Amino acid sequence: MPLATTRRAGLVDQVIDQLREAVTAGEWPIGHRIPTEPELSAQLGVGRNTVREAVRALAHTGILEVRQGDGTYVRATSEVSGAIRRLCGTELREVLHVRRLLEVEGARLAATARTEEDLAELRVLLNRRDTDWDEGRLDDFARSDAEFHQVVVRCGHNGLLLELYRGLMEAITASVASTSDNPEHAEMIRHRELVDAIETRDAGRAADEAAGFLDELIARAQGW
Predict the structure, then answer these.
(1) What's the Cα-to-Cα distance from 84 to each of 188, 194, 200, rounded to whole Å?
(2) Of 90, 109, 123, 211, whose CB count within 10 A is highest?
(3) For the HTH gntR-type domain, which residue ranges apply (predicted)?
């Protein structure tokens, strides 16, 4: 396996990056058992504790799965797909309900408190999100859509609301990915009207736009 010897600074982060790259590049396919801790330690030139911490971190994201007495296996190719595997059914509906609580008020505040710089950033992120969708980059789409919604909340300039939202970003990104597998539905949710409402400082319409698409997702989730 072509893993590079790591530098001393930030060893755990470097090992995480290299293990993740081995997965995303197909070096270790899903279901594959990765080399043992001593083998990785020798290949990377780092201590076993460093390898153990890196593996634990990737297991937490859902990319790896540690099976006691058996070894460590590849479970997903990215943090997004790993999160999707953990987010379904009742849990997904709960995330969508919490998103609704935060994002509706976030959109309302954004329409009243946004700056011109905020609006410009929203437009950039909206275009990135739409491009990711149009070009079929679904993992990137999940991330860019979640980032777009985070910036909508940030435009309201309520620090506590933003911190609450940031704390849920992994679950929010997973919920986007979990609900974007229907091309017709995802095509309908373009968020242009939401940004237009924020631009014109129409707080009521911004809140309605945020509530509308989430109500649609919640209704669909009832049958998943």
Answers:
(1) 22, 26, 36
(2) 109
(3) 9-77
Mean pLDDT of the region 142-151: 92
Residue 181 is given by DSSP the state -
Q: Is 155 helix (H, G, I), strand (E, B) or coil?
A: coil
Task: Pick the more confident residue, 68 or 207.
Answer: 207
- Amino acid symbol at 8: R
Measured N-to-C along each axis, helices 192-199 and 89-113 cross at an angle, to the nearest 10 degrees, of 30
Strand-pair partners of 33: 73
Q: Helix, strand or coil for residue 9?
A: coil
DSSP state of 29: -
Please say whether the beta carbons of 61 and 79 come within 8 A. Answer: yes
Sign, CA dihedral 144-135-88-190, equals: positive
**pLDDT attached to residue 185:** 53
Does residue 65 sit in helix, strand or coil?
A: strand
